[in-house]
C-alpha cells in the first residue's frame, strides 16, 4: 500500500500489491482499501497514537508545547491520555530516577498491547547530563524496551514530531512483517 | 434508621498524574469527600544536582541550573552568576545587565503564562492553555534567537552574558510587549470574571502572613497574603533599583489572590522589560573575568527573586575552581510544605485547585 | 567555613586602620555585635562558639546542646524578631571532622539577615530540631538527614525524603562513593 500522486494532478490513489495500476485506481475511486488485516491495523494504529503523558522533567514542557496550539500534535491523531489503560504508546519525557523506575515499569505493564515506547531527550536515552548522578537511571531502556530515541536536551517540538513520525513508520513497516530496529 | 457506616480511605495521587505538574505523589486520607490528612511524597525527580556541582567548575554548573526550574531557566542562570559575581566582586557591563533584566523578566512572564494555562487546565478550562502557550511560544522564539535554545538556555555567564542580542531583537521585544498587553485583556475577559472559575478558587486555601512566614514561603505565595516582600525591592540586586515597578500583594491569601498576583505580576514584568529595552546602552556584554573562576574561600548566601519565590544559593568555597558545597534554596520545595495544612478539612475537589495555585515545579522541588 | 580561611578577612576590616573601613563591613559588624550581646546576655559566653563576618554576613556558630534554645530566643525576642527562615543547608567538613548545619534567618524588625550555624561530630551526629519553631524547616531538616545523615532530635517525621527508604549511605558526605 503506497500513496502515489498521479502526474495529471488527479486525486491520489493507492497502489495495492498484486493489482495493476488501473485496478488500483478503480479500487481507490470506489473507496476500497485492499491489504492484509495486519497492514490495515498498522495503518489505523499509526494514525491514532494515543501517548500516555509521562512528563517527568524539562522535556515534559516541550511535550506540552508540542501538544499546544503552535505545533498541534492532534493533526497526527496523537492525543495525550492521562491513564495507561487508554494509551498505546508512552513518551518518556525526562529523567528517570531510581525511585521512579519501578513506577515506569508498572505503568508500562498496565498498558494494553500493542504498545510502543518513545524515549524523549538525552536523559531518557542515556542519562543525559545526569549520567554521573547517584540517583539517576542511565537510560529508560534499562527499565523497559524503547522503540524510538529522540536526541536533544530537550528535543525541540519538530524533533519530537519527527520522532513520532518515525514511530508511525515503524508501526506500518512492522505490520508488513519487516523487522525494524 | 440504621447508622451509615463510614470509613477512612487512603487515596494515592501520582506520581504519574496530569495535575501534579510532574512527578509529585500525594497520599490523601479521605473521609467521604473530606480530606483528613495529606502527605506529599517528593523525590521522584531527585537527580543529585548538588552532588554533581561539587565536581564541576562554576561555568559548568550553569547548564544544570537550567534544568532545575525549567520553566524559568533564565532566572536560575541569574541566581548562580549573581552569587558568584557577588562573592568575587566582579563588575558586569551595563549592556549585559540590561539584557539580563530583559530575559529574566520575559522568562518570568513565560513562567506565569504556563502557570495560568496549566492551572486553568487543571480546573477544567481547556482553551486558556492554548492561548497561554501560543503567547509563551513567542517568548521562547525570542529566547531561541538570543541564546540558541528553546528551554535550557545556558545564556548567562559569570561577568556578563554569552551572546549579544541579534539585530532588531530589542525592538521585537518591545513589539511583543505591546502585543501581550492586548492579549492580557483577552485573558481577563476569558477567565477573570468567569463564575465557575471564581467559585472554584475564591475562599479556597486561605492562610495568613504569619503562617506564610513561619513556613518560609516566598514569592507570590507570600505576597498573596498581603505581605510586601519582593527581593527585587527589599534586597536589590542587579540593576532592579533603577526601574519603576510595583510589588503586587494580595488581600486574603486564597487561591484567587494567587491567580490575580500572577496576572498582575505579568503586567509589572512587562513594565520592567519595556524600561530596560528602552534604556539599553551599547557596549560589551562580557566583563573582565579571570579565565578560571576561583571563588575566594568562605561561604556565601545570595538570593534572587525567582518566578516562584526566593531562589537562593549557598556556596561554601575553599578557594578552588570548584565549589566545596553548593546548596540551592529552592522556592518550590519550601512552598510545597504548606500543602497538608491548606488541605486539611477541605473537600477532595479542592485538592487540585489548591495544589495548582501553590505553583510548583518538580525539577526544583527535587533538584 | 573554616577559622583559618575566614578569620583573616574579619580581622582585616577592624585592624587595618589607615584604609577607610568599608561601610558595609562596619554596618555588619554593628549588627553582629548587637545580636551577639543579646544572646550572650541571655545564655552566657560559652553558647557562642564563634562569631564572625562571612564577607558582609553576620554569622554565629552556636553550641550544639543549646541550638534550639538560642534559635527560639532569636525568634521570640521582640527586639530581635528573626521570624523568617530563609534557607537551611548542611555541609560535610570531612577534613575538620564535623558536619555543619547552616540556618539563614531574616528579621523584619532589624531589617537584617543572620546566619546561625551548629556543628556536630561525624561520629554519631545529632542536632536538636527547630521544626517546632519554624514549620518551614521541616523538609529542609529531612533533606539534610537524607543526604547528609544528620538526624535531628525532636523532629516529628525523621524519614528520608528524596531517596528510597532502603537507600544505603548519604550522598552528600564527602566519603560517599557514587556507584553505578
Automatic annotation (TrEMBL), chain C:
Keywords: NAD, Quinone, Translocase, Transport
Keyword NAD: yes
Transmembrane segments: none
NADH:ubiquinone oxidoreductase 30kDa subunit domain sequence ranges: 61-179
EC code: 7.1.1.-
Catalytic activity: a quinone + NADH + 5 H(+)(in) = a quinol + NAD(+) + 4 H(+)(out)
PROSITE patterns on file: COMPLEX1_30K
Renumbered residue ranges of the record's region Disordered: 1-23
Class of enzymatic activity (EC top level): translocase
Family matches, as InterPro entries: NADH_quin_OxRdtase_su_C/D-like (IPR037232), NADH_UbQ_OxRdtase_30kDa_su (IPR001268), NADH_UbQ_OxRdtase_CS (IPR020396)
Keyword Transport: yes
Physiological role: NDH-1 shuttles electrons from NADH, via FMN and iron-sulfur (Fe-S) centers, to quinones in the respiratory chain.
Assigned protein family: Belongs to the complex I 30 kDa subunit family.
Official protein name in the record: NADH-quinone oxidoreductase
Species of origin: Tumebacillus lipolyticus
Organism taxonomic ancestry: Bacteria, Bacillati, Bacillota, Bacilli, Bacillales
Amino acid at each position: 500500500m503506497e500513496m502515489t500522486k498521479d502526474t495529471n494532478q488527479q486525486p491520489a490513489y493507492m497502489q495495492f500489491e498484486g493489482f495493476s495500476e488501473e485496478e488500483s485506481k478503480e479500487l481507490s475511486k470506489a473507496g476500497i482499501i485492499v491489504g492484509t488485516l495486519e497492514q490495515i491495523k498498522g495503518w489505523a494504529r499509526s494514525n491514532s497514537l494515543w501517548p500516555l503523558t509521562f512528563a517527568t522533567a524539562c522535556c515534559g514542557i516541550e511535550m506540552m508545547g508540542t501538544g499546544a496550539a503552535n505545533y498541534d500534535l492532534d493533526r497526527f491523531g496523537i492525543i495525550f491520555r492521562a491513564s495507561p489503560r487508554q494509551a498505546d504508546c508512552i513518551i518518556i519525557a525526562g529523567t528517570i530516577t531510581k525511585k521512579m523506575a519501578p513506577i515506569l515499569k508498572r505503568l508500562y505493564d498496565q498498558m494494553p498491547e500493542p504498545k510502543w515506547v518513545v524515549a524523549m531527550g538525552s536523559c531518557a536515552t542515556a542519562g543525559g547530563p545526569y549520567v554521573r548522578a547517584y540517583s539517576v537511571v542511565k537510560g529508560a531502556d534499562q527499565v523497559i524496551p524503547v522503540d524510538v530515541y529522540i536526541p536533544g536536551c530537550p528535543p525541540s517540538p519538530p524533533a519530537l514530531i519527527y520522532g513520532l513520525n518515525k514511530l508511525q513508520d515503524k508501526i506500518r513497516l512492522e505490520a508488513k512483517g519487516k523487522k525494524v530496529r | 434508621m440504621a447508622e451509615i457506616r463510614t470509613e477512612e480511605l487512603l487515596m494515592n495521587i501520582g506520581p504519574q498524574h496530569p495535575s501534579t505538574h510532574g512527578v509529585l505523589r500525594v497520599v490523601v486520607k479521605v473521609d467521604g469527600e473530606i480530606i483528613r490528612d495529606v502527605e506529599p511524597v517528593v523525590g521522584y525527580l531527585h537527580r543529585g544536582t548538588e552532588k554533581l556541582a561539587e565536581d564541576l567548575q562554576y561555568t559548568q554548573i550553569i547548564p544544570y541550573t537550567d534544568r532545575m526550574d525549567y520553566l524559568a531557566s533564565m532566572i536560575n542562570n541569574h541566581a548562580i552568576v549573581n552569587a558568584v559575581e557577588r562573592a568575587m566582586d566582579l563588575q558586569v557591563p551595563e549592556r549585559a545587565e540590561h539584557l539580563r533584566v530583559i530575559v529574566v523578566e520575559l522568562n518570568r512572564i513565560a513562567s506565569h503564562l504556563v502557570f495560568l494555562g496549566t492551572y486553568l487546565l487543571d480546573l477544567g478550562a481547556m482553551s486558556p492553555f492554548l492561548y497561554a502557550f501560543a503567547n509563551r511560544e513567542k517568548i521562547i522564539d525570542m529566547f531561541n534567537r538570543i541564546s540558541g535554545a528553546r528551554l535550557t538556555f545556558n545564556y548567562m555567564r559569570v561577568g556578563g552574558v554569552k551572546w549579544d542580542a541579534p539585530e532588531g531583537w530589542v525592538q521585537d521585544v518591545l513589539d511583543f510587549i505591546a502585543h501581550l498587553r492586548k492579549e492580557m485583556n483577552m485573558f481577563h475577559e476569558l477567565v477573570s470574571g468567569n463564575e465557575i472559575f471564581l467559585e472554584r478558587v475564591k475562599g479556597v486555601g486561605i492562610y495568613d502572613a504569619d503562617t506564610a512566614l513561619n513556613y518560609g514561603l516566598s514569592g507570590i505565595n507570600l505576597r498573596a497574603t498581603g505581605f510586601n516582600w519582593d527581593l527585587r525591592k527589599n534586597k536589590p540586586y542587579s540593576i532592579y533599583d533603577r526601574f519603576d515597578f510595583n510589588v503586587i500583594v494580595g488581600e486574603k491569601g486564597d487561591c484567587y489572590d494567587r491567580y490575580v498576583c500572577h496576572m498582575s505580576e505579568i503586567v509589572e514584568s512587562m513594565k520592567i522589560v519595556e524600561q530596560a529595552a528602552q534604556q539599553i546602552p551599547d557596549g560589551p556584554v562580557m566583563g573582565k573575568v579571570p579565565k578560571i573562576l576561583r571563588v575566594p574561600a568562605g561561604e556565601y548566601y545570595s538570593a534572587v527573586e525567582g518566578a516562584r519565590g526566593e531562589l537562593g544559593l549557598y556556596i561554601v568555597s575553599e578557594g578552588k575552581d570548584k565549589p566545596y558545597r553548593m546548596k540551592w534554596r529552592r522556592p518550590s520545595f519550601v512552598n510545597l510544605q504548606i500543602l497538608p495544612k491548606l488541605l486539611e478539612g477541605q473537600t477532595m475537589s479542592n485538592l487540585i485547585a489548591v495544589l495548582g495555585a501553590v505553583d510548583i515545579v518538580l525539577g526544583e522541588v527535587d533538584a | 567555613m573554616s577559622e583559618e580561611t575566614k578569620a583573616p578577612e574579619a580581622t582585616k576590616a577592624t585592624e587595618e586602620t589607615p584604609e577607610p573601613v568599608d561601610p558595609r563591613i562596619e554596618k555588619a559588624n554593628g549588627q553582629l555585635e548587637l545580636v551577639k550581646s543579646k544572646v550572650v546576655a541571655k545564655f552566657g559566653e560559652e553558647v557562642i562558639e564563634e562569631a564572625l563576618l562571612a564577607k558582609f554576613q553576620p554569622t554565629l556558630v552556636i553550641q550544639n546542646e543549646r541550638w534550639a534554645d538560642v534559635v527560639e530566643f532569636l525568634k521570640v525576642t521582640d527586639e530581635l524578631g528573626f521570624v523568617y527562615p530563609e534557607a537551611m543547608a548542611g555541609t560535610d567538613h570531612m577534613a575538620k571532622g564535623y558536619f555543619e548545619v547552616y540556618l539563614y534567618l531574616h528579621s523584619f524588625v532589624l531589617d537584617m539577615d543572620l546566619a546561625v550555624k551548629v556543628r556536630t561530630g561525624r561520629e554519631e551526629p545529632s542536632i536538636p530540631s527547630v521544626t517546632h519553631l519554624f514549620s518551614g524547616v521541616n523538609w529542609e531538616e529531612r533533606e539534610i538527614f537524607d543526604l547528609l545523615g544528620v538526624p535531628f532530635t525532636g523532629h516529628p517525621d525523621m524519614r528520608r525524603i528524596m531517596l528510597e527508604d532502603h537507600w544505603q549511605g548519604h550522598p552528600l558526605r564527602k566519603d560517599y562513593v557514587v556507584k553505578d
